[in-house]
Each structure stands twice: as C-alpha cells, then as structure tokens.
Specification:
The complex is a heterotrimer of chains A (546), B (308) and C (336). Chain A has 21 helices and 20 strands. In chain A, the strands form four sheets. In chain A, strands 6-7-8-3-9-10 form a six-stranded mixed beta sheet, sandwiched between helices. About 1% of the residues of chain A have low confidence. The longest helix of chain B has 39 residues. In chain C, helix 7 runs antiparallel to helix 9. The chains are: A alpha/beta (546), B mainly alpha (308), C mainly alpha (336). Chains A and C meet through helix 8, strand 10, helix 9, helix 10 and helix 14 of A and strand 2, helix 1, helix 8 and helix 9 of C.
Chain lengths: 546, 308, 336
C-alpha cells in the first residue's frame, strides 16, 4: 500500500448546485454535489439520464448550456475556485489544463473541416503547435491509435467510421496534455468491442500522461471496471460514492443496489433471476419460425451506373420454437436488423426461405400477407420514433383493430383498456399523446399496440437499447411476463449480449452477415464456440468484476 | 469533385430544356395564330410579320421550331424589336448596366445580411436581435416598388443625396440607390436565414467541442459557427439571383435605369412579345448557369456534398 | 455512515485492466442519508394535468405570444373588411368627381382624393377583397399542388421522384415575376385578365417551393418507426402516407404558406404595377399604387395610403407565420 503523503486534490467540487432557468421557472439540476478527483486518478460519475451527471462535469470546464448557471458551492481546480470564473479564465484553462472527450462521435467533429485542421487548431490555441505543426498533428493522431495518421489528417470527418472519429476526438482532448480529462460517455455510441479497445487505449494514454479522468457513464459495470472511484448520482444528488470495487460489491444506498440489480452485465453474474429456459416447448419441435439459407444482397450505387454488391445477410438458417425467445446478437453492420426486416416481410430476401407456422412466406398472396401481418408484430428501438406523435394513445392502440375491422367502437375501447392494463399502464393514459410519456412508457404503448392483434410472434428490434437500465429492466420483465401469460414467441434483435442472458432461450450470433454461432443461451455463456462470440462476451463491461 | 460537377451539369440539361420549352410553349403552342399572339393584338406591317415568321420558323413543325429557337438563343440571334433594332444590340447595351446593379444589390444583401444576421443570432432575444427582426419584417412586408418610390422621393428629391433617376451611362455611383432598393428585400431574407442558421449551429455539439479545445470566442464564432452557417445562405444567394432579375424589372423602371429590366418592362408595356421571349430566354440561361456556379460553391463549402 | 476503506489486501497484487482499479489514495465510502435522497418509483406515469396533443400544445404556447395575438387580430379585421367593405365606408369608391382631383382630406373622406377625384379611403377598403383573394387562393392552390407532388415524390422516391423533382426545377428556374410576365403574355390570359388569371399564374410558379419543402419533410418522416409499424399492422403503403406521413409533414408547410400568403399579395401588387396583373377596372391596392406613381412628387399620400394597407396586411401574415414557426418547432420550444 503506497499512500502518497498529503495529496492535494486536482479537482474538488463542494456543495455544488446548478440551476437552469426555463420558461416554467428555475429548475435545480444539481444539488449538494461533492466530489474529489486526485491527480492521475480516474473518477466515474454514474447515473441515469437526467441525473445531473453531465451537468456536474461540464460545470468544471465552464460549458453549461446558456440557461444554466452555478447557483451555489465551489469548483476548486488546483485550489482555484472556478464556480464564478469569467469566460476568459476558462479559455486559458481549456485544452491544456482541462480537456474534454464528448459523447457522440458523429456530431462532435465539425463536418466542414479536415481532421488535421481540427487537431491543429487545438494545438495552436494552446501554443503547442511548434515549428512543424503537421508532424505534431500526425503524432497526436498516432498516439490516439489512428493508423496512417498523416493521410488520415487530410480527410474529413464523414470519411471516418464512428470508432475512428472517437479516436480523433480523444486525440483532440489529450493533444495538449491536460491534467484533467472530462470524458462524457466517450464510448456509449460504439460497439462493445470497439468500446473496449478505445477505453483500453484511453487508459494507457492517461496513465502515461498522468492525466486524471472524470468519466461520465450510465453503465455501472463500465465505471467499476475503469475507475478507482465511483460516484452515483440520482435526481441531481450524489447518493453514494466510494472505491469502485467496494461500492460494487457492497452497495449501501437503496438506489445503488437497485442499479446493480438491474444492470444486465452485472445481474447475469450475480445469480439474480436469469431466464428460465423453456425446455418443454423446445422439445416439442414445434417451430413458429424457420429461416433457411436466408440471404440479402444490396446494390450499392457508386455513380455513373456502377454498382457494388453488398451481402448484408449471408445464408443464415435457424428455427424459433413456439413460446420461446431467440436472440439475434451482433454489432453494427452484422445484418441482424436486416433479418428482422425480412421476417416482418418489410424487405424481400434475395434468396432463401422464411417459413412461418409451416407457410412459406415467398408464396403468400396479398390477402394472405394481410393475415400474416396480424400474427407477427414488431417493436422498434427508438421510443420517440415508434409512436405517431399526432395520434393519441387510444388511437394508436386502436389503429390495428380498426385496420382489420375488429369489433364495434365500444368493443374496441374495452380492448384498448385491457391492453393498457396488460402493459401496466393506467387506463387514463389513453387520452394522452406520446409527447407526454417517457421513453419506457412509450415502449409499453408500442407493446400494447403490437399485442392488439393477438400475434403469435413479436420481433423486438433493439426494443430496450435506448432505455435507462432501470426502465430497461422493467420492460424486459414485462416482456417475460407476457410471454408466460400469452405463450408469445420472441425474436429479439440486440447488440447487447448482457441483455440476452436475461431474456433469451437461444442465441444466434451474427458477424458481418454470417451466422457464427447458434446455441442455447447457457451454452453461449459458458462455452462459446467462436472467437467472435468470446470477444463479445469479454467486452461486456464489468463482467469480470463480480 | 469532377464527377460531382459533371453530375450537376447533366442534371441541369433537362432543367434548361424544360424551362426554355416552357417559355416557348407558352408563347407558340397556344390556340390561335402565333403571329397574332406575338403582335400583342396590334396591327403589324407585313415586313415585320415576315421577319417574325422567319425568326421563329413558323412554317415548320413544332420541334423543329423549338430546336431552331434554341440554336438562335445560343448564337444570340434574337431577332428584331418592332422598332427595327436588333434585340442582341439592345441586350448588349443593357446587360452591363444590370450586371452592375446586381453586383451592388448582391454585395449589400450578402455583406450586411450576413453581418447583421450573425450578430442577431449570437444575441438571440436581446434588443439588437428584436429590433433587427422587426425591421426585417417591415422590409419584407413593404413592396419593393413602394420602397423604391419612397427612397427616390426622400433620398433623391428631398434630401438630394443621390440623383433620383439614372443617366444613360448608369455609373456605379448612380446605381447605389437603385441597388439598395433592389437588394433590400433579399437583405431581410439573408439576415433571417443567417440568424436562424447561427442559432442552430451555436448549440451544435461540434461548437461545444471547439470551445472545450480552448479556442478563443472570436475563433469559435468565425471558424465554426459562421463557416457552417454560410452553407444555406450561399444556396439562398444563388437562387436569389433569379429574384433579383425579377426585381430589376421594377427597380429599373422606377429609377429609369437603362438595363435589361427596363428593356423588358418597356417591351411588356408596348406589347412586344418577341422581345420579351428573347430576353427571358437569355435570362433563363444566365439563371441556370448561375445555379451551376452556386452548386460548385456549395460543394466547396460542404465536403459532405462533394464526396456524396 | 462514511467509512474509511481499510487497505485493500488485493491492492498490492498485480491486477489486469479488466479487474478494476484500486486507488493509491484513501477513498471515503459516502452514503447519502436516505431521508434526503428518497427513492421514487421507476418511470412513474404522470396522471395529473390535461392531456395535450402536439397541436394543442402548440396552440397553448401560441396564444400567449404577443406576435400571434397582434397578427391574428389584424388578420381577422382584414377578413371582415374584405367580406363586408360597406360596413367601413358609405362612400362609393367608383363615384369619382374630377373637381376633387388630388383633393385633401375633408370630413367623411379621411384620406382625401386621388387624381381621378375618387375617395382614397373607400378605394383602399374596397380594394382589400381582390388582394386578399389573390393571396388566399394562391396559397391554397400552391399548398394542394405542392404538397401532393412533393409528398408523392418524397414518399415513393425512385424515378417518380426524379421526374417530379426535375419538373419542379423547370418551374423554379423561371423566377416568379419573369414567369408571370410570360404567362400573362398568353392571349388567353392577356385578354381575360381577372383575379383568377393572377392566382393561376402565381400558383403555377409558386408550387415548386412548397413541393420541395413537402418532399423534404416526407423523406424525414417516411422511415420513422411508426410508419413501418403501421405497415406491419397491415396498413397499405398509400394509406400509411395519408394517415401518418402527410399529417406529420404539415408543420413546415403551414409555416411557409402563412408567410407566402403575404408574399403573394405583394407579388400581385407588383404584377399589377408592371401592368401584367389585375385589370385596371378591378379595385386593388396594387392598381391604386400603380396609378398613383404618376403624381408621386405632387401628392405622395395617394400612393402611401394603399401601400400602408397592403404593408400592414402582409406584415400580419408574415408575423403570424413567424409565431407559428416558433410554436411548432420542437427545438425552439425547448428554449435551447
């Protein structure tokens, strides 16, 4: 135990309160927040959306939105209080003392300037460009793990992949060797394997430079894995803070406990309720869905009539037994959503056959297709996009009944009430509009709408990916419960292997259009056959901690 | 980049053909005698009538007529006005005047529109912003010709700061007042567009990141906010060239500027349809070419377009 | 209660990255008192307050805006004037006495007389109808035509889009005034000038703008999950366009059309001024302004009065458009 004598904190936030002025009056986004970051240390702030985690961190670099201000408390950076510091002081500090890596790699690089230019202006603004700025730029990009940096510097952001862009942003954040780096969800928009690489790299760089990191994340597992210290925020307040592993293994505050119980990556290891397999159903050999040699080839136009072929799904075969859940897992570009589209008959396969309940879909007439629509229903990822904002909840759920001419007005209303009850929403919700509901509630409404036609199968395309962990757990539980009650079959498309553990009986792992693994969930988690699956499993943050 | 230019150019061909065909069709393919249509219902000397028949090849099938019309357009063989002058010569004299007028109007709307728009956008909701917004609404609401008359009387006659009408030479100095009138409405639109665009961009993620890098405020505003806000403004300015041509008819009429607009204005007043058709044809060519130039500029400003 | 972590026995052992980090510093384990940080239900449903549709919400924010209140009062007044001009003046606008030529304001004739000796106020009141009619019907026509064409092009894409987009470009390539000049040279139009010829002319060259906006809005909406969901529920492609896509694309069209209504009134006046708009025997602000220009220097008010009526009308519609834009724009609503 090497204890440093009289360590001086690099950043110390004391009793911080941040207020936003809104048309409806002031809103307290953060109250009584305290945190300390020692030099070279990584501190993670964990919380759901709206918990005030980003707001707290951004106040330290003077980047609160225009209507927000520090209303009380101190932000001590190296002993200097920045709570009411003028913009001029922040301009001096930003870049070379406090750096930032933002969340969304797609929107944080200016699309009209070359990457090199954007790195160079950072160096210049902080007087670190030197006599050969271009070489310096290449060096900074190389440090961030960008291959072929000199050529890359000459490209525009849209020519970079998401992971590349995030590396460029890390290069910019660390270009001027700041003492503190604020990393705001730096990898949440990326695939798990890319996420792991980038975080590893960030770790190496910051420990070489001796940079302290304030890591903001919604993922407790990731926080525990990457930080020495974890701070849990809830509704603008710090509810618990402490050493990462200690906090993870021995949570005290009920909110922290709740978070740990709900986090799929952690729950799986804890022996908390994991999906009980539906072995009886599987044994009956009664498959609702059979997919055989399914292939989808897209033409990519390259101008002047030239075309490239892109195989999104390549000879995929699997079967889904009635009353069970099969998860299709893969990273972006693996073809998993294309499979969902084809199963929903929204996209025509190039070759191969989809058989639903013994019927070959390619042979369906218009009329039979209309009937088929009733039996397979989708639930989509984006809770803000899946409900028509112009339709009241009642009209939304009633629409499928109306389309298929089911029941009288009174019967339909009764049915809507039943459906709302099934998804645990109060009947009074039916006169409301989607914009008045939260993401999780919208997802419930989407489930109710899907259930209206009493389908046999539901295709969930990343149905819980956009939700906060606690809400995600709640929706997953609802899906589970509905399956038990109604004997539904799920095809569950997801990028998140951790979630699979909680919901699926069988798993199909996809990599670049090809199926690399197809086995029961237990088999995949205990004895994965392909390297790719093992990589995916390893990349689940926090999985190795408990 | 080259393939982009080529693609845009190819796309313009159907537009150009369509637009000229539309003009041609409107004049010649309507029921009745095209010569009667061309004369505007006025009696014509047989010599003029013959000249028109020859000019528009009225004895040939429609497609041939149209083809020859296009050929005439490109060779600037635009025929004679009723007063016996070559339309080509009339245009050659009027064009430089209108070009000067358009340059002045464009400069006013672009420079002041963008500067005011940026300041207003950066100070959204403050006094400067509100004042400028109200003024821009007023400018849009008052028709150009009313503004023209008012400025002519106030600035030209009562204050005597500028000549109320323009001489035959139409020097740059004389054209400032008409240019201001011509550019005023577009100035208001440019201002509003720039303002909206700045307001949208200043909260963009990449602007926050640029600030976080330690850039100074002026640099963030010019290099990141302004640069990106210019993209829609440039597109608007290009499209606006057409509106300027239309506006020039009114402005040149009021200030008696001897430009293309005035020529067109008089040709309409005197019912000289052949001259009108010839001038509009030329204007369409200018407009289509200008749009191509704007597309290039647009691609230069936005790399995403260039490589798309 | 805050407890100091006792030195971790594992800290000295070599640890890989994936096993978490242990600090060299002493870290306090802080737990906030539960009384201060009470747990709330996960994702509780708000059951208080009246349900609000998007339109209702826009309306609620709209009716508080001064810009909206002023402009809508003005517009209602203008509509009343256009519908019932005789309520506002008892003077016959066509009763012109040359003796009164350019006469000053006298009792009963608050704005004086024009060159022909007609009452300016009465003419301005009676001129409202033609101007407003041109604005309203041109807007209706452009919205119908533009939305239909733009929505079909954007929704179905492919060759239909290419053809319709080029068609729009052709009309776009002719600036409104130039195009209108050509149109009005047509014998059919030239010899039958009426408000309707002006309306048709303006609509023919005005629709591509709306079509472009509609196309853009439809493209943004057509791939929304709720459209795909309704297709999966069994709704036909065309019905999905009608029931989900078009209603969700209307906001920008409404905003632009409101502003356009004013712009078309100006365009009519400009055309009348050039001599290719309304026939001289129809009373309109544009005609009155055009005929006033000859004596502008001797009696400028003859021009100013109808110009004022015109400007206030146009200003009302533009202000209304601005207010509606702010109310309908979700980004502006958040106050970001």
């Amino acid at each position: 135990m090497s204890e440093v004598s009289a360590p001086k904190p690099l950043l110390e936030i004391k009793d911080l309160a941040i207020t936003f002025s809104t048309p409806e009056g002031p809103v307290n986004a953060v109250r009584n927040a305290n945190l300390t970051v020692m030099p070279g240390e990584t501190v993670a702030i964990v919380g759901e959306s709206g918990s005030g985690k980003s707001t707290t961190a951004l106040s330290a670099i003077g980047l609160l939105p225009g209507n927000g201000k520090v209303s009380a408390g101190q932000i001590l950076f190296d002993g200097e209080d920045l709570a009411q510091a003028p913009e001029k002081r922040f301009v001096e500090l930003r870049g070379n003392h406090i750096g930032m890596v933002p969340q969304d790699p797609m929107s944080n690089l200016n699309p009209v300037w070359k990457i090199g230019f954007q790195v160079k202006e950072t160096l210049k603004a902080n007087g670190l460009a030197g006599d050969k700025p271009n070489e310096r730029v290449a060096q900074v990009l190389a440090d961030a793990g960008l291959p072929n940096p000199a050529a890359r510097a000459n490209q525009y952001p849209h020519e970079f992949s998401g992971g590349m862009r995030q590396r460029a942003l890390i290069a910019i954040g660390l270009a001027c060797r700041p003492r503190l780096l604020i990393a705001d969800e730096p990898t949440s928009a990326l695939d798990v394997t890319v996420q792991q690489q980038i975080l590893d790299h960030l770790d190496t760089m910051t420990s070489e430079l001796g940079t302290a990191v304030l890591l903001i994340t919604h993922d407790l597992g990731l926080a525990a894995e990457r930080a020495e210290k974890v701070i849990v925020m809830y509704k603008g307040q710090v509810v618990e803070s402490g050493p990462a592993l200690e906090l993870l293994r021995n949570p005290q505050h009920p909110y922290t406990k709740r978070l740990i119980n709900s986090a799929p990556s952690l729950a799986a290891k804890q022996g908390v309720e994991v999906k009980t397999p539906h072995e009886e159903q599987a044994a009956k050999n009664d498959n609702v869905l059979e997919v055989k040699d399914l292939t989808k080839v897209f033409d990519i136009r390259k101008g002047f009539g030239r075309k490239d072929k892109f195989t999104a799904v390549d000879k995929v075969s699997f079967a889904v037994p009635r009353g069970t859940t099969t998860a299709v897992v893969g990273e972006s570009g693996s073809g998993k959503s294309t499979i969902a589209q084809m199963v929903l008959n929204l996209l025509e396969p190039t070759s191969g056959e989809i058989t639903f309940d013994g019927q070959k879909m390619s042979k369906l007439s218009e009329k039979e297709l209309f009937k088929f629509r009733r039996r397979v229903q989708p639930i989509f990822q984006d809770p803000y996009g899946s409900l028509d904002p112009m339709y009241s909840i009642y009209r939304t759920i009633e629409e499928p009944l109306r389309i298929h001419g089911i029941g009288s007005t009174a019967e339909r209303e009764k049915k809507v009430r039943e459906l709302l009850d099934q998804v645990s929403m109060p009947a009074s919700t039916m006169h409301r509009f989607p914009n008045e509901l939260s993401g999780g509630q919208r997802q419930r409404i989407a489930i109710a709408r899907a259930l209206a036609l009493q389908p046999e199968m539901i295709v969930c395309d990343e149905a819980v990916s956009a939700l906060d962990v606690l809400v995600q757990a709640q929706v997953l539980e609802l899906l589970q419960q509905l399956q038990d009650e109604l004997g539904l079959t799920y095809l569950f498309i997801t990028h998140d292997l951790a979630v699979v553990r909680q919901i699926a009986d069988d798993v199909v792992v996809m990599e670049r259009g090809k199926m690399v693994e197809h086995a029961s969930t237990d088999e995949v988690f205990t004895s994965a056959q392909s390297d790719y699956t093992r990589n995916l499993l390893n990349a689940i943050p926090g999985a190795t901690l408990l | 980049m080259i393939s982009f230019v080529l693609k845009r150019f190819l796309q313009l061909i159907p537009v150009f053909i369509g637009a000229t065909l539309l003009v041609y069709f409107l004049v010649f393919a309507t029921p009745g005698d095209p010569i009667a249509a061309l004369s505007g219902g006025k009696p014509m000397s047989p010599a003029v009538e013959d000249a028109l028949r020859a000019q528009y090849n009225l004895d040939k099938p429609f497609w041939v007529q149209y083809g020859l019309y296009l050929k005439n357009l490109f060779t600037f063989d635009l025929g004679m006005s009723f007063s016996g002058q070559e339309v080509k010569d009339l245009l050659a004299r009027a064009f430089p005047v209108t070009a000067r007028l358009a340059v002045i109007a464009m400069a006013i709307e672009a420079v002041f529109g963008i500067i005011f728009g940026v300041i207003a956008g950066m100070r959204k909701g403050k006094i400067f912003d509100s004042t400028v917004l109200v003024l821009s609404l007023l400018v849009i609401a008052v028709p150009t010709f009313v503004l023209g008359f008012v400025l002519q009387v106030v600035v030209g006659v009562q204050l005597g700061w500028a000549k109320p009408t323009v001489s035959g030479q139409a020097t740059w100095g004389e054209l400032i007042l008409p240019g201001l009138v011509l550019g005023l409405v577009s100035f208001a639109y440019v201002l509003r567009l720039t303002r909206t665009s700045v307001i949208e961009n200043k909260t963009a993620d990449y602007v926050r990141t640029a600030t976080a890098k330690g850039l100074s405020r002026p640099r963030v505003i010019t290099v990141h906010i302004l640069r990106n806000s210019l993209i829609p403004v440039v597109t608007y300015l290009g499209a606006d060239l057409g509106a300027l041509m239309g506006g020039a008819i009114v402005t040149e009429g009021i200030f008696n500027v001897p430009g293309i607009g005035n020529l067109l204005f008089k040709a309409i007043r005197f019912g000289e349809t052949p001259t009108v058709v010839a001038i509009v044809g030329v204007l369409v060519i200018i407009f289509v070419v200008a749009n191509l130039v704007v597309d290039m500029l647009y691609a230069l400003l936005d790399p995403r377009i260039r490589y798309a | 209660m805050p407890e100091n972590l006792t030195p971790n026995p594992e800290a000295g052992a070599p640890r890989g990255k994936r096993e978490g980090k242990v600090s060299n510093y002493k870290i306090e384990h802080f737990v906030a008192p539960i009384s201060e940080t009470p747990l709330q239900g996960v994702d509780a449903v708000k059951e208080t307050g009246k349900p609000l549709s998007m339109w209702a919400e826009a309306w609620r924010s709209l009716r508080k805006r001064p810009l909206f209140i002023i402009s809508s009062i003005l517009i209602v007044a203008i509509i009343v004037v256009a519908a019932l001009p005789n309520l506002f003046t008892s003077v016959d606008p066509t009763h012109c006495v040359l003796e009164n030529s350019n006469g000053p304001a006298v009792s009963g004739h608050p704005m004086g007389y024009n060159f022909q000796g007609c009452d300016i106020y009465s003419r301005a009141i009676y001129g409202t109808r033609a101007s407003l009619m041109v604005g309203v019907f041109t807007t209706i026509l452009t919205v119908l035509l533009g939305t239909t064409i733009g929505a079909l092009a954007g929704y179905y894409g492919g060759w239909l889009d290419a053809v319709l987009a080029r068609l729009g470009d052709v009309f776009f390539a002719l600036p409104l005034i130039l195009g209108a000049i050509i149109m009005m040279q047509l014998p059919v139009f030239r010899d039958n000038k009426s408000p309707w010829t002006v309306i048709v002319t303006l609509a023919v060259f005005g629709w591509p703008q709306i079509a472009r906006i509609a196309r853009g809005a439809v493209i943004e909406v057509r791939n929304a999950d709720f459209v795909t969901a309704s297709r999966a529920l069994g709704l036909s492609r065309f019905k999905a366009l009608l029931r989900h896509v078009v209603p969700n694309s209307l906001a920008p069209i409404i905003v632009v059309s409101t502003v356009n209504l004013g712009v078309y009134i100006v365009a009519e006046a400009t055309l009348s001024f050039i001599g290719v708009g309304l026939p001289p025997d129809i009373m309109s602000w544009g005609n009155d302004i055009a005929s006033a220009q000859t004596q502008l220097r001797s009696n400028p008010m003859v021009l100013m009065w109808p110009a004022l009526f015109l400007s206030v009308t146009v200003l009302s519609f533009i202000m209304l458009g601005d207010a509606v834009r702010d109310a309908l724009d979700p980004k502006a609503r958040k106050g970001a």
